[in-house]
Amino acid sequence: MGAATDGQEIVRLSKEHAELKPVADAVMKLARVRAEGPELEEMAASGDPEMAAMARDELQILSDKLPALEHEVALLLAPKDKDENASAILEVRAGTGGDEAALFAGDLFRMYQRYATLHGWRVEIDSVSEGEVGGYKEIIASVTGDGVFGRMKFESGVHRVQRVPDTEAGGRIHTSAATVAVLPEVEDVEIDINPSDLRIDTYRSSGAGGQHVNKTDSAVRITHLPTGIVVTSSEKSQHQNRARAMKVLQARLYDQQREALDTARADARKSQVGSGDRSERIRTYNFPQGRVTDHRINLTLYNLARVISGDELDDVINPLIAEDQAARLSALEDEFG
After folding, report:
1. N or C: less crowded end of the chain, CB within 10 Å?
2. What is the CATH number of domain 88-187+265-336?
C-alpha cells in the first residue's frame, strides 16, 4: 500500500487489506495457541507437582479454547460472497392486498431505514411511488456503508403480513404481501453498458408539491433495450436523476448475472439461505399474535413490534447469517474432506 500512488489503487488495496487482516490475525492467534501445547505438556510431565498441576490447568484452558478458534478460522476461510462488503440498492414493492399492501411496504421500508441508522449506514431515496392511503406502491433507495449487502441480502423475497388493517372497518384479519429485493451496488468498471442500448426519457415529476413538480421535465426514465429493464429516478435534478438511475440499472444488470450463476450452481443454491428465489415467501409478520416467522430456517420470534421497528431485526438476520455460514462450512468440508 505504501508503494501505491494512484488513488483508486490505494482504495482497492485498502479494501483488500481490510478483508485479509481478520483472516491473518485469526490464523496467527490459532498458531500461537497451538504452539503453547507442547511446552505445557512438557511442564505437566515435570517432576515438580505444583508446576505440573498448573500446566495441566493451562492445558485444559487451551483445550477449551481451540475448537472456537478453529471454527473462527474455518469461517473466515470458507468461500464468501464477493459482494459481502458492498453497499446495496433496496427495492420494496407492494404486492397482493391493495392499500394494505402499500401500507405494509411502508412499514418494511421504515424498518430498514431504522436498521440502517443503527448500523451507521446512509439511506438515500432514488425513486418513490406513494400509495393512495399511505405507504408505498414502490420505493427504491441506495443504502451505503460497509457490509450492507452481506447483512441485507437475506431480506430478498416475499414478506407477508397478517393483521387488521386501518382500512378495515369490520375488524377482520387480512393477509397482504410486499416484495423486497436487495441488489449489490457495483463499481462502474464492473458492468459495461453500451450507450446505444439505452433509451433515455425525461418527464415531469408528480407529487404532493414543490417548485419543480409538474413544471420541469426533471424526472428520468432509462430503458435498457436488450433486457427490457426500466429504471426511473425523480428525486433530484435531471442530471442527478440520470446518474442515480444509471446506478440502479447497473445493479439490476449485475444482479441478473448473479442470478444466472446461482442457477448454474443449483445444488449449492439450495443450501444457501441468502440466494433463494425472489418469488419465495420468506417471512410472515402476524400482528394478532405478535409473531415473526422466517420460513427458510423455521425461526419464530414473539417480538414483532421490536422487529418491525428495526430495533431487533438482527434477531432474525443473525440466525440467517449463522445458517448461511454453516452451509458454507459444510460445502468446504465436502470439498476437502
Report:
1. C
2. 3.30.70.1660
